[in-house]
Amino acid sequence: MRVLVVEDEPDLRGSIARALRDDQYAVDEAGDGEEGLYKAESAAYDAIVLDIMLPGLDGFQLLERLRRTRKTPVLMLTARDSVKDRVRGLDSGADDYLVKPFDLDELLARLRALIRRAANRATSSIDIGAIRIDTAARVVTRAGEPIALTAREYTLVEFLALHAGSVVSRADLYEHLFDENDNTLSNLLDVHVSNVRRKLGERLITTRRGHGYCMEIPE
Amino acid sequence: MIFQSIRWRLQLWHGLLLLVVLTGFGITAWRVARDSYWRQTDAELQETLDRLLRPPVPGRPHPFPPLLEPPPPPGEISEQALNGFRAMLMLNMRSSNVKNGYLVLWRADGSVAAQTGSTPREVPRPRDSIRQASATGRARGEYREFYRFLPFGDVLLVGRSVAPELAALDTVKLWLLAAGVTIWLLGLAGGWWLTTRALHTVDVISETAEKIAAGDLSRRIEVANTDSELDRLANVLNATFARLEHAFEQQAQFTADASHELRTPIAVVLTQTQSALARERSAAEYREALEACARAAQRMRKLVESLLQLARLDAEEEPARREPVDLSFVAGECLEFVRPMAELRGISIDADLQRAQCFGDPEQLSQVATNLLANAVQFNREAGVIHVSTFAENGTAQLIVSDTGNGIPPEDLRRVFDRFYRVDKSRSRASGRSGLGLAICKSIVEAHSGTIVAASSDGAGATFTVSLPALQEGGKRVHTSGGTHTLGSGV
Predict the structure, then answer these.
(1) Which residue, B81, B257, B338, B395, could crosslink B420 as a Cys pair with Cβ 3.0–4.6 Å?
(2) Could you tell me which residues come within 8 angstroms of residue B240 by beta carbon, excluding any fewer than 6 positions away?
(3) Which residue of B has its CA nearest to A56?
(4) Interface residue B428 vs chain A (CB under 8 A)
(5) Does residue B279 sit at the A interface (CB-CB below 8 Å)?
(6) How confident is the model at residue B458 (pLDDT cuts 50, 70, 90)?
(7) Under DSSP, is residue A72 helix (H, G, I), strand (E, B) or coil?
(8) Residue B200, Cα to own-chain centre: how many angstroms?
(9) Cβ contact (<8 Å) for B271 and A102?
(10) Contact flag B271-A19 (C-beta cutoff 8 Å)
(11) Three-state SS for B203?
């Protein structure tokens, strides 16, 4: 999962990014509105954490412009907690709203919920046949037995599972699993996929030549 | 207590007054009616009495003239003549048609000489002590009588029962009473209506005031555009409410801004500690988190100090310390303080510091100078210039600080002294400034009875002018135990 954090206070931006990276998100950062909008428009993020009080372009303006092209889920951060501000935030296209100061756990939970909703999932666990992916605990089990996955492998499985039944291109996968500073070679994807196949079963992920990968939903 | 309400007291007084007036009126009316009855009756009786003594046949001489005119006839009057006279009286009485009338004739010795059949029993003879020649009237129970002492000693009395008149008067009394009570009740109802109408505005005012007291400060009393006393009161109250609301809003805005400013550093501390503690970190990561927390804490400390200072300045009318201060000296000191910051950005300082004596708290005044100079450094362009000058002019001590930065947009010029107002939100926040510096400057300068003005032509830097009442040479300010008074410090 790839997340953009737009926040002008460097210390706050840093701690949010660190917490997200700890949870295996690919994280990009932006320190002002212009940069935030540019990044938000140029890459496919799974979610955006957006501060309202930003230099240059404020959060409301950024959101308004972004909504013309993208439906990326947006979690707004603000120090203003009046009902008026919250209504304005939600009305201008934000998907959720968090008032400063907040707990990181809450921020992470809300982000997970946003990403889940964007993929039309109602609960935090996804069942693909005997395999269950618990997105809150970040654990994959098969028939109740936990399966050891590396962080990258887990994100790969989670992303494919969120889009189970449909084909995910290699470019999409690459974009959602690695942040802008990650120079990992794209053939590393194949390595991760083959590792996941080894651990979860060969038939779980099929390769569509020239299109990408697909997590099949068993009949 | 119900009688402490204005409405009830008004009603009580109104009722009492109305009662007194109506009673007075009723009694007078009844008396007039009664007197007019009695006058009529008396006139009738007197007329009868006169007629009895007139000759029985009009136009002919009286058969007994000596019996009527004083002085009394000499010698004995024959009993026969008297009897004739008495018979004539009886005859006259019968022919007079006095309704319910009667006649009594006493002899000089007190015995009844003649009386009509309808005479009530025991009519007392008028006493001799009030003996007089003319006809005299008297009221006796339900009878009214007229009598006359005749020259030869007889007393002639004509009377009649006034029972019908008394009954009529009783009816009049009853009517008057009924009418009075009706009018009184109508008056009370009218009074109640009038009071209600008059007090309606008061009710509206108190209702609105109650709602305002309950917290809805946006409410106002509806005023009919008349110039009545109550409407004027309502207008005064509305103006007061408006001022109250404004002050309250300002305070609420200030509190909201203050808490808003505190939220971001608190969020930094919370998220930094939470993410650092989430798992084992390297020493460098811990250091980074601690440094971020320290920065946030410093920012909060600055903010809290500024808030505290503003609160103190708000609470105090005048600065605690008052002593002669030379602005040129203050500015010079502060200049040395900001010079390193200025040099770091290649900014040169052009100072023209002339003696400018004023009276005040040197620490607070130096804070004003430092704030203005620090702003001038911060909002200047690289390698810009800061002009600082102090001088005395027209009874004022002035400090002028100007920079060569981007200046202040005209729409922001008026608001730069507002609390938490920032012209450039990004720059000030990133540099950890609270947005209170100029507000504090303004509070301090105003506490010193001075003025502070910002001026800027867009793009050509900003100029701040502080103007304080000057301390005249020879010390024209008088220090008293109660405070300081300025003599002749006006412009």
Answers:
(1) B257
(2) none
(3) B426
(4) no
(5) yes
(6) low
(7) coil
(8) 15
(9) yes
(10) yes
(11) helix
